[in-house]
Amino acid sequence: MAEAHQAVGFRPSLTSDGAEVELSAPVLQEIYLSGLRSWKRHLSRFWNDFLTGVFPASPLSWLFLFSAIQLAWFLQLDPSLGLMEKIKELLPDWGGQHHRLRGILAAALFASCLWGALIFTLHVALRLLLSYHGWLLEPHGAMSSPTKTWLALVRIFSGRRLMLFSYQRSLPRQPVPSVQDTVRKYLESVRPVLSHEDFDWTAALAKEFLRLQASLLQWHLRLKSWWASNYVSDWWEEFVYLRSRNSLMVNSNYYMMDFLYVTPTPVQAARAGNAVHALLLYRHRLDRQEILPTLLMGMRPLCSAQYEKIFNTTRIPGVQKDHIRHLGDSRHVAVFHRGRFFRVGTHSRSGLLPPRALEQQFQRILDDPSPACPHEEHLAALTAAPRDLWAQVRRSLKTQAEDALEAVEGAAFFVSLDSEPQGLTREDPAASLDAYAHALLAGRGHDRWFDKSFTLIVFSNGKLGLNVEHSWADCPISGHMWEFTLATECFQLGYSADGHCKGHPDPSLPKPQRLHWDLPEKVHLSISLALRGAKTLSGDIDCHVFPFSHFGKSFIKRCHLSSDSFIQMALQLAHFRDRGQFCLTYESTMTRLFLEGRTETVRSCTKEACSFVNAMEDKGKTDPQCLALLRLAVDKHQALLKAAMSGQGVDRHLFALYIVSQFLHLQSPFLDQVHSEQWQLATSQIPVQQIHLFDVHNHPDYVSSGGGFGPVDDHGYGVSYIFMGDNTITFHISSKKSSTKTDSHRLGQHIEDALLDMASLFQEGKRLKQGCRGLGEDSGYRCGSLPCHSRGSRAPTTSTNF
């Protein structure tokens, strides 16, 4: 979600003095090290490979094969065609009484070799099948004969007992696109936003790049793609995330929200107990690989590598670059409440603590009257500071408060028990939702440990949320975990009639351990500086959240359009009305069709999109003309989206070419131009991946309301959206208050208007727009939605916020 900010900001980090030293290493050495890191990761997953690496067979299949060979041997048949006799001759002669043992060993060795060859053949066949992307390029709902044949073969070769990492060794590697195609697509993408003079200048730079440097840089990338698991992902993690020296708060971390209309219990400790228990159940399923691999459109597996670092993970600050620390296990969580830190054990001798016991521990913390020590209250603001400052201060903490620091960084995750209520309220729905988003994204700047893989935030009225660090994985991974957590804690674990967790307290449990920080004098000033910077950054963020519920995915599908592309065109129209011009638009999509793939950029501001927007603003254009242009724009967006997903995108290839040029110390004005671009509109859809966990028809309010991220540019917007069931779309908009060019609420109104104007191009949508306008004129309420700009509210059926 938030990688666009880092992608724009990574270039300055390459030109710092410390980074120049790092990049003076030979590029071939760096490629070799990338491959070495890949092979080390493969070796570290040996046990997973043993369990799932023989997929689609199983270890028991070896026993079946060995038994079949023994049976054939007993029937005086030789399935090895003499090979077992030759193997027996090579085995030591232990005497006549061991003659039968030599035969069994020979059969076992032959069975192992045959079994290994068969498994290898299956792996190669499955990898070749998964390299086919023709199905992705076909129209939705239409499936050609080759694709049907391919799908049948995939199902045959995929076996039956799927586990999380079953497909890992069969996934193809991400291809390196043709550099000529990438440059052509890039020029096509910037044509709508550049003047004729600027475009001609950029095209000349591109031509010079193709003539002088492209072939050499491309050769190095192809070499890396053959040797390493992924030609771009490790550099993306390092240079876009870990080398960034900016604050993680707002700039990199993102947030996930609770149910919008429902709070299952107002008891803060109870909600925390159930949520923590549900999260640890998810971790248990991860450890046992009981979570099924994600299958795109129910047939194509996605890479599961990012799931490995959800828990027990911390981003450790460094002077030149950070590193990710991941532990194999952790049996406690770190808890923050009113400026104090606690260590809460999550397991007893009999296993994971039940929710009621965890609630008891959290209630003990809430009831603890002890005050925070001097400067301890604001200590976590250091994790919101620039990374260089935090790295220097952490060295002092490492020596003076090692145990407390280890308790936090070694925790399964971080829990913040907030002293204030948050969430949707009837009295002021617009302001309450905006404040809720702001609290999740930034808080007060000192009450989240931004380095942890995620911070679970529990507000005083029982509302939940997550603040997620971005470097270890992308939003769909944390979203998958969050869906499981909300569904499990609400529907499976549940609450008693008085709002507490089910079960009984355990008085024998030791009290949570208060962490004590021996803070040296020189750290006090650093904490004050970090807190001041965090408050400034937090105070500059303008968050706006509104659910648009006048129509949703079902209406868009009835119009025979892609729901994501429809929203992207609405954002283009809304942004043009907001700023009066077109801009480069960053839409994040995934490349997890490939081994260790992460994200790619869809450049949504296309020539076709601009033509549609101009037509909508031209009163001389008829609805049929606008609709025809809308369909062309949607088709173009779908083509770009599918190309990006299949490894034929633009930005990751250009990024990797730029990194190689820096290692080789080759100056490329074209690549410099590419990476000096500003993304004034960054967008992301939050996918709903486990629809079966929620009953949107009988319980439509029990759906996650998505999340958001900070703006990419100082004068730009960050927009994320989620389809909540069939009839609601929730938008999360962010911008900076210091900018005179942006206003999150203003853009929100433009998005609503754009959606209704686009819907009115269809016969059914005309009635929707007329009804909405009438309602708006009569009552001032924002149509079909809660809270925007003081335009009224919709009361939920069940909510403890009201």
Automatic annotation (TrEMBL):
It comes from the Eukaryota. Pfam families: Carn_acyltransf, CPT_N. The keyword Transmembrane applies. The active site is at 470 (proton acceptor). Its main location: other. GO terms for biological process: carnitine metabolic process; fatty acid beta-oxidation. It catalyses: S-hexadecanoyl-L-cysteinyl-[protein] + H2O = L-cysteinyl-[protein] + hexadecanoate + H(+). Residues 175-752 form the Choline/carnitine acyltransferase domain. The chain crosses the membrane at residues 50-75, 104-130. GO terms for molecular function: carnitine O-palmitoyltransferase activity; palmitoyl-(protein) hydrolase activity. It is an enzyme of class 3 (hydrolase). PROSITE patterns: ACYLTRANSF_C_1, ACYLTRANSF_C_2. Keywords: Acyltransferase, Cell projection, Endoplasmic reticulum, Fatty acid metabolism, Hydrolase, Lipid metabolism, Membrane, Transferase, Transmembrane, Transmembrane helix. It is found in: Cell projection, Axon; Cell projection, Dendrite; Endoplasmic reticulum membrane. InterPro entries: Carn_acyl_trans (IPR000542), CAT-like_dom_sf (IPR023213), Cho/carn_acyl_trans (IPR039551), Cho/carn_acyl_trans_2 (IPR042231), CPT_N (IPR032476). Residues 1-47 form the Carnitine O-palmitoyltransferase N-terminal domain. It is a multi-pass membrane protein. One of its GO terms (cellular component) is mitochondrion. The keyword NAD does not apply. Its EC number is 3.1.2.22. Belongs to the carnitine/choline acetyltransferase family. Palmitoyl thioesterase specifically expressed in the endoplasmic reticulum of neurons. Modulates the trafficking of the glutamate receptor, AMPAR, to plasma membrane through depalmitoylation of GRIA1. Also regulates AMPR trafficking through the regulation of SACM1L phosphatidylinositol-3-phosphatase activity by interaction in a malonyl-CoA dependent manner. Binds malonyl-CoA and couples malonyl-CoA to ceramide levels, necessary for proper spine maturation and contributing to systemic energy homeostasis and appetite control. PANTHER family: CARNITINE O-ACYLTRANSFERASE, CARNITINE O-PALMITOYLTRANSFERASE 1, BRAIN ISOFORM. This is Palmitoyl thioesterase CPT1C. It comes from Rousettus aegyptiacus.
